[in-house]
Write a structure and sequence with these properties.
Radius of gyration: 25 Å
Structural class: alpha/beta
CATH architecture of the largest domain: 3-Layer(aba) Sandwich
Shape: elongated
CATH superfamily of the largest domain: NAD(P)-binding Rossmann-like Domain
Strand order of the largest sheet: 8-7-6-9-10-13
Distance between the termini: 45 Å
Order of helices and strands: EEEEHHHEHHEHEHEHHEHEEEEHHEE
Strand content: 15-25%
CATH class of the largest domain: Alpha Beta
Helix content: 25-40%
Number of helices: 12
Largest sheet: 6 strands, mixed
Length: 365
């Protein structure tokens, strides 16, 4: 086993003292330890040697009573503190080119999750994962790009639309040369230029009813996460359709949200029978309104203003939640809550939503 000072960690020893300062730049954390002579020697040896067994023998030559069991225990404690890392072997599934592509991303994974000894395992989980994206507009196109860049193994992309010139101000990857093409065809081409290892499956179908969505059940079954970005007839209606299928299949899903003017909707992320489901959220709104038979007096479906900075920021957050779901790296930030992002001041107002144990959909289990 080999051990190293973690990249981004600076080590400083106080003069005439056994105090060692570790400055961790990746988390802006500063830690101070008072080390015994054995461990001061250990830090010195790390400059020239990384094999744990060789280091131990050199320390034991000077300190015969030095315990290897205690030594290994303290190395692990320093690793969990974000100061040391073990040698990270690249899984056989990644060739040299891919190891170069993802190495800084893998370092980042290790920075924010010290529990996993080899952070390449997070990247391997992404490579083995499939995500179904429903809708390739201002959110779905960005999410597809972000996941492809991150190294997702397979994307199933669903849309029926052709690219129009007004799409180019807020939707990712499409160009003027793509106007008139199917979004699925264009997106597949551009994703392959970003990351040729991503498998892309295209579904060209218009979803205007729950029955039409059910025809895609085979894609729901093979996906590890489903992300809904279909905004017609509206995001609430399509989320209800998507969530119903996902709950039946026990599939984690993310509501891609939407945007109107300067406010963007983020989440929620649903893990069936563990977190609040879409029906829990809908019931909460009905309870808040205190009536279920509201009459719509005006339904103005004219499109509101939209700008790329807002749509891409929402997609960024949703993509990160998707990666956390797939890898277990962190808890998704939109579990049991949804956010309202104000592009004017970058504030996010969070609305907490608890799982309703009496929910007619998820309360049964």
């Amino acid at each position: 086993m080999r051990v190293y000072i973690k990249p981004g960690v600076s080590v400083l020893k106080e003069k005439n003292s056994n105090l060692i300062h570790f400055s961790i730049s990746t988390s802006s954390v500063h830690k101070i330890y008072e080390l015994t002579s054995e461990y001061l020697l250990f830090i010195e040896l790390l400059k020239i040697e990384n094999d744990v067994n060789i280091i131990f023998k050199k320390i034991q030559n000077e300190f015969p009573n030095f315990s290897k069991e205690e030594f290994l225990k303290n190395i692990e404690a320093l690793r969990l503190d974000g100061i040391l890392i073990y040698e990270r072997s690249v899984p056989k599934e990644f060739n040299h080119q891919n190891s170069e592509r993802y190495k800084r991303q893998v370092e980042f994974f290790g920075d924010i999750n010290a529990v996993e000894i080899n952070s390449w395992n997070f990247q391997l989980k992404l490579k083995k994962s499939t995500v179904l994206i429903l809708g390739l507009g201002g959110l779905g196109s960005w999410i597809a790009q972000y996941l492809a860049m991150a190294g997702i193994g397979r994307l199933i992309i669903c849309d029926f639309d052709n690219i129009e010139i007004h799409n180019l101000t807020r939707q990712a990857l499409y160009t003027t040369q793509d106007i008139g093409r199917l979004k699925t065809d264009s997106l597949e081409q551009h994703i392959k230029l970003i990351n040729s290892d991503v498998r892309v499956d295209k579904v060209n179908i218009e979803i205007e009813s729950e029955e039409e969505l059910i025809t895609l059940t085979k894609y729901f079954k093979v996906a590890d996460v489903i992300i809904n970005c279909i905004d017609y007839p509206d995001i609430n209606t399509t989320s209800s359709w998507v969530s119903k299928i996902c709950m039946q299949l026990n599939k984690p899903h993310i509501i891609g949200g939407g945007y109107s003017g300067h406010i963007g909707l983020i989440g929620p992320t649903v893990i069936p029978y563990k977190t609040a489901c879409w029906e829990c959220i809908s019931q909460k709104y009905r309870d808040d309104l205190q009536h279920d038979d509201s009459e719509i007096l005006i339904n103005n479906r004219k499109s509101s203003g939209a700008i790329v900075f807002l749509s891409s920021m929402i997609a960024n957050i949703q993509s990160w939640d998707c990666i956390n779901l797939l890898t277990g790296l962190n808890t998704p930030m939109t579990i049991n809550r949804k956010g309202y992002l104000n592009i004017c001041d970058f504030s996010i107002e969070w609305e907490e939503i608890s799982r309703n144990l009496k929910c007619k959909v998820c309360g049964k289990k």
